[in-house]
């Protein structure tokens, strides 16, 4: 895509601090990291989000994340790792090219997780039924 930041990075039109690359996937450091070592893993082929990825492309992307996460953790001596993928503006996606975050975490690093919203009476079963019904179709 002509105006996609991550496509431009994958095509080398915009520089990045690359940490891994193969024929399908590129991994580079986030320029606005949660913590040092915060890595973005993208498919080189444009897909806006998870729903636009083929299963094979998603599996290649996750295979790369699976391999890189422990390497990043060890390299920056992190206490833990968060893996995340934002899909859609409401979920916090800022660049509309599918990507996963490998976020090194440290005890007391100040990064806050999301809060939970408990289900109302009977709501959990209704939501589960909607999902089960959609899976069955």
From TrEMBL:
For this protein, the record's CDD domains field holds: HINT_subgroup
| Active site (UniProt) | 99 (tele-amp-histidine intermediate)
Q: Which InterPro entries match?
A: HINT (IPR039384), Histidine_triad_HIT (IPR001310), HIT-like (IPR011146), HIT-like_sf (IPR036265)
**What Pfam families does this protein's entry cite?**
HIT (PF01230)
Extent of motif Histidine triad motif: 97-101
Give an example GO biological process.
Answer: nucleotide metabolic process
Which Gene Ontology molecular function entries are recorded, alphabetically? catalytic activity
Which part of the chain is the HIT domain?
A: 5-112
Query: Would you tell me the protein name for this molecule?
Result: HIT domain-containing protein
Native species: Candidatus Lloydbacteria bacterium RIFCSPHIGHO2_02_FULL_54_17
Recall the taxonomic lineage recorded for the source organism.
Bacteria, Candidatus Lloydiibacteriota
